[in-house]
Every structure is written in C-alpha cells, then in structure tokens.
Amino acid sequence: MNNSILNQIGNTPLVEAIHINKNPNVKLLLKLEGNNPGGSVKDRPALNMIKSALERGEITKNSKLIEATSGNTGIALAMIAGIYGLNIELVMPENSTRERVQTMKAYGAKVTLTPVSVGIEGSRDYAEAKVKNEGYIMLNQFGNNDNWKAHYNTTGPEIWRDTQGKITHFVSSMGTTGTIMGTSSFLKEKNNNVQIIGVQPTDDSKIPGIRKWPTEYLPKIFNPEKVDRIIDVSETDARIMAKRLAKEEGVFAGMSSGGAVTSALRLIDELNTGVVVAIVCDRGDRYLSSDLFD
Fold first, then answer.
1. Per residue in 89-141, pLDDT tens?
2. Which residue positions form the known binding site for pyridoxal 5'-phosphate?
3. How many Å apart are CA 294 and CA 292, to the nearest integer?
4. b or e along 58-74 (b: 16 or more beta carbons within 10 Å of the residue's beta carbon)?
5. Can you spell out the DSSP letters for 229-294?
6. Which residues are reported to carry the modification N6-(pyridoxal phosphate)lysine (predicted)?
7. pTM for this structure?
8. Is the separation of the CB atoms in 190 and 160 below 8 Å?
9. What is the mean pLDDT of residues 63-73?
10. What angle separates helix 72-84 from helix 98-106, to the nearest 10 degrees?
11. Could you tell me which residues are annotated as the binding site?
12. Would you please indicate which residues are annotated as catalytic (active-site) residues?
C-alpha cells in the first residue's frame, strides 16, 4: 500500500496560536490532528493496531472485529479496516453525534448503539461480552500497547522535529491515554525536563473523548508516572474555547481540543518563557449536529 491514503496519516501541521495566547514570552503551538484523513488523532493508533495485529497473525480477513468507541477511534478503525478488507462492528453510546455514526457506516462498519444511561463503560461491557461469548476479537484500544506506540513512533518525533527540540511543555486531553503515554515516552527520552500535562474533565462535566475513569475502567496502558501534572477543565470552559479557536484562530475543532487549549493557556499564565504544544485532536465538523457551536 505504498501510495494509499494510509500514507497520509501523521505529519500533521504544527501552527502557532496568534490571538488567544496573551503571553508574548511563551509560544503556544497547536498540533492539528484533524488533518489526518480520518479527521482525528485516532488514525495513528488505529493503523498501528490493525497493521501490527495482521503482521503478528492475530487477526485475518475472516476475523470478526469489535471495538467500543466514543467516536474518533471508531471512525479511524472503520476507514482502515475497510482498506484492509476486514469486518468490524463498532459500539457507541446512543447519544453519539449523527455525523460519527454516518461516517462509520460510510466506511463500511456495522454500528451498534448502547443506552446513554450506561455510558461508554456500557459500550465496553457489550463488546467484551461478544468477545467472550461469540468469538469476536477486540483490538482493545484501552489495553493495547500498539495504541501508545503509534504516538511514540510518530506524534512525539514529529513534535520534537517541528519545534527543533525546543518544546518545554506538552498538553493533551486524556481518553484512552494513548496519545499522552506514547508522546511522553518519546519526549522524556529526548529531554527529561519536558513537562507532560494531562487534561481531564471536572467531576460534573461531560466532554466527549476525555474521561476521568472509574478505577476499574482505567486504561491498562496508562502509567501515571509519565504525566507530570493533571489539569481539570469544565465542560463550559471547553465549549467556550472550541468556539474561540474557530472564531479567533481559524482552528475548527471539538470540545476535547477546547479543553486541552484551555488548560494550555492556564499553564502559560504561570510561565515566564517556554514552547507549549497542545493536541487539537479532531475537526469541528463532526459536532455540527450537537449544540457545541449553537
């Protein structure tokens, strides 16, 4: 697949925020993961999980794949499974935006919606039951080392290269935690002084794509030692920043990106100098049927 669309995954732009950052001594750079062909940062782990599982012989074209997702991973898996001729069923809470569901179906995936009342945890339980009882195979983004390794091999090196090694702080929302685990591992090897900041919602907030997980659902790939600091962000602040990013910077992104940038700006308020990189994990057009941009 030398010149397939898969070669367009990664090497996303790193652009400077010009208007929202009021500290002239600190650079705020935004890593635009919505520029991946599937529209989000999840193209990276989805490709690595599928490709690695095929290479190891853990899955074949006859395998029945299933995965629980809040959206972006599902879209990426649907796109990449289609290219490799694999069958996949994606399980999501029924309040997922219509754009997400329709995009997964367009790529050829089967989509199953679980009740809102049980959240993404309920989607995960449903998928695990199908693995246990019906012979399905789960790539399991929450416990699959190929998830974080995708970022160790691509996201981290790209950021190091594009900042000429001058990055001082890395800010990322935390869902499966693959992005922050892999990028942290790479950046800390290059310079142990780079500070890694994770972003999670306040207790009363719901922000699609990022979670404060109950202990029993905490992703197995998560290692707290790779995160120097966690900043909690409210749904209200994440929504406001998503709108500001579009209006003031021309960066059209979802609510979890709004949360990451809110946290980056709070951090910048404390700094005298530095180069801060924040992950903008997807595109805003997959939220248009929600009330995010009303």
1. 999 999 888 899 999 999 999 999 999 998 888 998 999 999 999 999 999 99
2. 72, 175-179, 256
3. 6
4. ebeeebbbbbbbbbbbb
5. EEEEE-HHHHHHHHHHIIIII-----HHHHHHHHHHHHHHHT-SSEEEEEEE-B-GGGGTTTTTT-
6. 42
7. 0.94
8. yes
9. 91
10. 10
11. 72, 175-179, 256
12. 42, 256
Residues belonging to the chain? 294
Residues 155, 207: Cα–Cα separation, whole Å: 23
> What is the number of other CB atoms lying within 10 angstroms of the CB of residue 165?
13
Residues 6+ apart with CB under 8 A from 241: 20, 258, 259, 261, 262, 265
> CA 92 to CA 123: how far, in whole Å?
6
Tokens 């994606």 correspond to: 90
Tens of pLDDT, residue by residue over 192-241, are: 999 999 999 999 888 888 888 888 888 899 999 999 999 999 999 999 99
Q: Determine the Cα–Cα distance for residues 31 and 277; give it in Å rounded to an integer.
A: 7
Nearest Cα to 68, choosing from 136, 132, 141, 134? 141
The reported pLDDT for the residue numbered 213 is 85
